[in-house]
């Protein structure tokens, strides 16, 4: 933790007074489970708090930054900013993946690279930061790490193809749209998913990705392109 504390102080001017909070934020459940006799706390509760704080700060930023955008557009932008893959990327950008404590099994299976673990870690860190230094400290950190990426338009350009497809297909009434995993391959740390989009039970298209969410978005994008070609 000493190296992490020095890094936080040097790069972000963050000084944790409660080192135990910081250590808990960087402790995965797999590590805590392997050391039950030591009664070590893991980061799931901090993740819960951090998620709420993240949603609030990003919502406040978008509300003020884009006064003309409707609620639906703001929600789509927020969802792309706080999605699992984005948070995992920010964890890596901050080198948080170097410091997380994982169980031996999780470590061997590539947990240090897993988006779910790294995304949760980012939220847990925010939760710990709020408890230690307050909401404004978390806001300052996000404005250093995340907001610059929003400012240059990285998230404004991200499309939510699933929502677009749903809005297009249901314009004349309710239509049942399902996403079904048709193939899953690869080791735990490098999964590959293929997903089919079904409209009223009939396959319309399919897509692939490193997570179910990404595969679903790709399937929806392919469906939209198919509809465009047919129009």
UniProtKB/TrEMBL annotation:
Its cofactor is Mg(2+). Keywords: Cytoplasm, Endonuclease, Hydrolase, Magnesium, Metal-binding, mRNA processing, Nuclease, RNA-binding, rRNA processing, rRNA-binding, tRNA processing. GO terms for molecular function: double-stranded RNA binding; identical protein binding; metal ion binding; ribonuclease III activity; rRNA binding. Gene3D superfamilies: 3.30.160.20, Ribonuclease III domain. It is found in: Cytoplasm. Residues 1-134 form the RNase III domain. PROSITE patterns: DS_RBD, RNASE_3_1, RNASE_3_2. Pfam families: dsrm, Ribonucleas_3_3. This is Ribonuclease 3. It comes from Streptococcus ferus. The lineage of its organism: Bacteria, Bacillati, Bacillota, Bacilli, Lactobacillales. The gene is rnc.
């Amino acid at each position: 933790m000493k190296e992490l504390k020095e890094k936080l102080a040097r790069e972000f001017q963050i000084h944790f007074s409660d080192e135990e909070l910081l250590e808990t934020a960087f402790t995965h459940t797999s590590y805590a489970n392997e050391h039950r006799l030591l009664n070590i706390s893991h980061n799931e509760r901090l993740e819960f708090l951090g998620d709420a704080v993240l949603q609030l700060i990003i919502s406040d930023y978008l509300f003020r930054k884009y006064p003309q955008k409707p609620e639906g557009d703001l929600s789509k932008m927020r969802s792309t900013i706080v999605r699992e893959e984005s948070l995992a990327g920010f964890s890596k950008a901050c080198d948080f993946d170097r410091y997380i404590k994982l169980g031996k099994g999780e470590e061997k299976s590539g947990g240090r690279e897993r988006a779910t673990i790294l995304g949760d870690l980012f939220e847990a860190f925010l939760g710990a930061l709020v408890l230690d230094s307050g909401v404004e400290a978390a806001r300052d950190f996000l404005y250093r790490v995340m907001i610059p990426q929003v400012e240059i338009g990285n998230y404004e350009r991200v499309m939510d193809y699933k929502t677009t497809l749903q809005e297009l297909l249901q314009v004349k009434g309710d239509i049942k749209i399902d996403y079904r995993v048709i193939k899953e391959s690869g080791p735990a740390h490098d999964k590959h998913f293929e997903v089919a989009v079904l409209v009223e039970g009939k396959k319309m298209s399919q897509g692939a990705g490193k997570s179910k969410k990404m595969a679903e978005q790709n399937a929806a994008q392919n469906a939209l392109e198919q509809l465009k070609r047919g129009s």
